[in-house]
Amino acid sequence: MSSIMKGTFTYSNPTRLHFGEEALGKLAGELAGFGPVVLLSYGQASIKKSGLYDKVMEILRAAGKTVVEDPGVMPNPTVEKLREGARLARENKVDLILAVGGGSVCDYAKGVSVAAYCEEDPWEKYYVRMEPVDNAIIPVGCVLTMAGTGSEMNGGSVITNHAVKRKIGRVFGDAVFPRFSILDPVLTLTLPRYQMVAGCFDVMSHILEQYLSGTDDNTSDYIAEGLMRSLVHSSRIAAANPQDYEARSNIMWTATWALNTLIAKGKTTDWMVHMMGHSVSSYTDATHGMTLAAVTLPYFRYILPYGLPKFVRFARVVWGIDPTGKSDEEVALAGLDAMKAWMQEIGLVMSLRELGTTEDMLDGIAEGTFLLRGGYKPDLTTAEIRQILEACF
Ligand code: NZQ
Ligand code: ZN
Fold it and tell me: How far away, in angstroms, is 75 Cα from ligand 1 center?
């Protein structure tokens, strides 16, 4: 068991964030710190539709940059796209990768950053074997258009290899974190509702993966509770009125703090919901946050007896459950019921079936789920994962 008093850590975060309605105005100043060639990586259609592409191009032109276009980064970016981007970056000797989009584009940019000068296959070296990065890295900057992943201020890069049905998240070190990120909540207002609520659940899940561990008294858990309370509050407002700027800006800021390494300090972490969600995505290509929503409650019910006091605390502090006259187990379960009601209220997917998962995929999804240690249930097995997935179906 780790505790904040026993935990030994170094905390720093190298990403400079510009937040708010005028944040794009900071891009020119950031660009001045890099060489002339910029790889402009973006998604499939949204930034052209919203007009953001034109604005960014204008800033790049005014800054005298040579722009190498890299469009078409798909949600759940693939290894094929990563290899293509790495070639483009290397052949054009780019000085900066500017990711304009959601978490997929930011994650992909970090992958290209380390893959461009990698002499072996980057998938094998950096995602399968998880080797330290020993080649030149191209700096990354982000203009974020979707709140959820926290990729704007972390070293995470999740890449999918459909051929082998594996989705693997690598967490790179400080050198790969975005050098800067621009977060203007207005840029998220064009998100389809489905993506907006999926992003909200992704944030909730990131916090819970770091909260549901340990029995010590830890400052990180109090921060996590505050973030969850803010998220539940703002997501309710945003679900009722997606154009509410205050709610959307709070969600965006909460998303960053949910996964910029702060709340994991002094703690072990669970991450099994994400491991299951990633395996589901590798079979169905489903939206990340929705895969998490589909598996969370059955997983929590399964691990609840092993971490009962924390589930009780979660119920009381985050969901306001009154413990009077209830056993600990009843309080904990009432918390999960309140969470379920919130999930339904904001419009999340509640089962794997809704994501196109079929029963014949469940064995493969269970086998593709990496087993991590750190959560409340010790020694979780693939057979147990298979059983949990059945309950998510
Ligand atoms: O491709 P475009 O046309 O841009 O459309 C995207 C995409 O279809 C659209 N979108 C984004 N911003 C928009 C918008 N549409 C209209 N208006 C806007 N402002 O939304 C769709 C989803 O975008 P995507 O980037 O895929 O979503 P998200 O930010 O949720 O990123 C998901 C990826 O991040 C990984 C996930 O596994 C997944 O691959 N994660 C990364 C993490 C990290 N770096 O730490 C942690 C997370 O747990 C997660 O695993
Ligand atoms: Zn996530």
Answer: 6
